[in-house]
Amino acid sequence: MAELKQVSFAPDVLARVAPDVSLQRHLSIGIRPNLRNFTEFKAVEFGRSSQLEHNENNIFASSIVKSGSTTAITTISLGIVEDLGNTHRQRNQHFATIYPQIEILRGRSGAPTDEEMIISQDLFETFRHCKIIPQESLNIDNIGIKIKDEETGEEEILYPDSNESQWQYVNLSSMHKKPFQFVLLANTKVYSREVSTNSVFDLCFASILKALQDLKLPRCYVNDSITTKISIKSRKSNARGLVDTNKGVLNLDLRFQHSLQLNVKPGTVSSNYGVIGIEKKGDPEGDDIMHLDNEPVLLTDIEGEEEESTILSRISIVNNSQTINRISLVSNGDITLETLRRALDISKQRASLNC
């Protein structure tokens, strides 16, 4: 009979061949494969680049979030739709959301992956249920009009709230009778993904929220190469200032911008956790077998192949120092009430530090 030989693997090879064994070996000695403590989050750095923001290209806000070797860059652009808020208000939906598109760059092209679509959908639902963006803050009020003086040939943009004396002589079009709203579109690119899907969600949430806090909305006006029949500065005719704007199109006035009003409290942050039991060798009767410890281990900010592929019970919490905005649980039987309480306490402490 051939003699059996013990096979040994280097740590990085064992992490790929048997990630569950590698993780259990690390946890049994009180450390994680990434050398962080069980409840230690990776540092998150925020930045902003004005080079990313080109209003002429419909980019009005941006943010850069970096955690370890993973970077998320978000740009926010605007769309305009006719307000259908009457139906929404009947359903008590007084808060809007943002439409995110997540791209995890891995040097490939093609259709979005399942992971990208799931994260995008989760962010869409999270911003809506957390009630961060009031619906009324996206309303387009006091739509202006661009006119051309027939005598001087000069063009001027008039607004009902800042040009009251001249506005009364303007014939309004159907564009001024319809309510319009902005739609927020976010494009987030994730570079050097070395964290779990849950951590990518946290980084994208932080990046989009930071961009929203810096977002400034422009004013809108109607422009259809309009020429006044009689100069609005003339006072010699009862027909002065008549303007035909029946075929107007909304345009953005980049000279005037105001900050987006958000319903977000300081310290709002998204945190993710993994829950797993530690296997211990031996039992009270002395048998040389493996068994799970009674109290599962709570790990923050899942990272690395070992943790992502082995840990099946997950907790995701969006909160600030006072309230909980969202809790998501995926349990494989490891999550206990005590574990959930610890996760809530850690999330509250983390939010307090971010205030």
UniProtKB/TrEMBL annotation:
A GO cellular component annotated for this chain's UniProt record is: cytoplasmic exosome (RNase complex)
* SUPFAM superfamilies per record: Ribosomal protein S5 domain 2-like
Q: Name one GO molecular function term.
A: mRNA 3'-UTR AU-rich region binding
Major location category of this protein: cytoplasm
Ordered alphabetically, the record's keywords are: Cytoplasm, Exosome, Nucleus, RNA-binding, rRNA processing
Superkingdom as given in the UniProt entry:
Eukaryota
| This protein's record includes keyword Transmembrane helix | no
Q: Does the keyword Cytoplasm apply?
A: yes
Q: Show where the Exoribonuclease phosphorolytic domain sits.
A: 61-218
Compartments, record wording: Cytoplasm; Nucleus, Nucleolus
Gene3D superfamilies given for it? GHMP Kinase, N-terminal domain
Q: Which family does it belong to?
A: Belongs to the RNase PH family.
Q: What is this protein called?
A: Ribosomal RNA-processing protein 43
Species of origin reads: Candida metapsilosis
